[in-house]
Amino acid sequence: MMLRSGLQIDSRNAQTQHENTTPSVKQRSPVLESMVSNEKRSISEPSMQQLSQKVRVISQESSWWELFGVDWTIILFWEISFFVGVWLLSFNSRLYFAVGMLLMGLNYGMIKTKGSHLAAHNALCHSKRWGKVWKHLFLEFQGTFSVDAACDIHIKVHHPYTNVIGLGDSSTWRVPFLPCYIYMFIAPLVLPLLTPVVGLGYLVQERRWRRLSQCSLLAFLGLASQTLLVMAAAKLSAVKAVLVLLLSRCVMEIPYLHINIFQHIGLPMYDKNNKPPRLHLMANGALNLTRTWLLDLNFGHSLINCHTEHHLFPQLSDNMCLKIKPAVQEYLQRYGLPYHEKDYTERLHYFVKNYKDLMVKMPPITEFVGIQ
């Protein structure tokens, strides 16, 4: 009995000594739990860095044709359509004349949206020098707008502060004193006249006199060259040729206005002091329109069915936005983030029905309370 009890005491002492000398899980738990919790948090929470890495891999594996070639082919197609349209004006036929004006209008629709938009974001090539050339060509020479206004308003404000009240909330598109149907279907026809006024007016407001003279010269040369082509083809006077140009530029102005309001207005708006992180801001504040072949081809994927992808990765071309779309959609939905997508006609009915709340009243502010 004495021997057994002694052995039991020794074994207990040895076990106690072993427990005291061996690091316990509890002693290491603060560090380990911190590491594990950080790892779990990085896995369970969406990250802009993580999504960017996925998109970077897709971009690096893409060919020049996918990066830029597809979009340049579409741009060249619409550029050629302008000259075909001018050529059709030379025929003594009202039908040919109407088709010619339609093609010229579709060309301007591409210039004002797809061409100018991609050029402003430097999404047409890798070269910064050539990027500047495309900006002045599409925005000023052909689009009669201002590179400075496009970059300062769209690139530096709208994109970083999407749906932030007073900054990138698309409030510049609101004209509260206009009735619904006038605003939605008639007022856009004035945009060809307002576009150069807004572009040059911005330079006057900012007192950029040198840029004002440069932009005015390029816009005048672009408009004059197109006027001369119409005069030569259709045997029209200068005044009538300018009227033909302005009327042709109205062709895509109604859907142009619509897409600018459909994709942000009516979605959550934030105060600048309480806006969410970039990934959440873009996921909540941008909306894709379902694919429509004419709008996709003329305006570009980044403005139609890949607008969320464009706001997340604005440096990518239209074709690349379309290519990364499945990866972005899967990532956002996997982490429970919104991925807004609506049909054009559905959005149109929604705005007509709720015009006063959306386009007249100030939008309510959504408070971001962080990730729960």
From TrEMBL:
<feature type="transmembrane region" description="Helical">
    <location>
        <begin position="67"/>
        <end position="88"/>
    </location>
</feature>
<dbReference type="InterPro" id="IPR012171">
    <property type="entry name" value="Fatty_acid_desaturase"/>
</dbReference>
<feature type="domain" description="Fatty acid desaturase">
    <location>
        <begin position="97"/>
        <end position="341"/>
    </location>
</feature>
<feature type="region of interest" description="Disordered">
    <location>
        <begin position="1"/>
        <end position="31"/>
    </location>
</feature>
<keyword id="KW-0472">Membrane</keyword>
<keyword id="KW-1133">Transmembrane helix</keyword>
<feature type="compositionally biased region" description="Polar residues">
    <location>
        <begin position="8"/>
        <end position="27"/>
    </location>
</feature>
<feature type="transmembrane region" description="Helical">
    <location>
        <begin position="95"/>
        <end position="111"/>
    </location>
</feature>
<dbReference type="GO" id="GO:0016717">
    <property type="term" value="F:oxidoreductase activity, acting on paired donors, with oxidation of a pair of donors resulting in the reduction of molecular oxygen to two molecules of water"/>
</dbReference>
<dbReference type="GO" id="GO:0016020">
    <property type="term" value="C:membrane"/>
</dbReference>
<keyword id="KW-0812">Transmembrane</keyword>
<feature type="transmembrane region" description="Helical">
    <location>
        <begin position="181"/>
        <end position="204"/>
    </location>
</feature>
<dbReference type="InterPro" id="IPR005804">
    <property type="entry name" value="FA_desaturase_dom"/>
</dbReference>
<dbReference type="Pfam" id="PF00487">
    <property type="entry name" value="FA_desaturase"/>
</dbReference>
<dbReference type="GO" id="GO:0006629">
    <property type="term" value="P:lipid metabolic process"/>
</dbReference>
<feature type="transmembrane region" description="Helical">
    <location>
        <begin position="216"/>
        <end position="236"/>
    </location>
</feature>
<protein>
    <submittedName>
        <fullName>Putative fatty acid desaturase 6-like</fullName>
    </submittedName>
</protein>
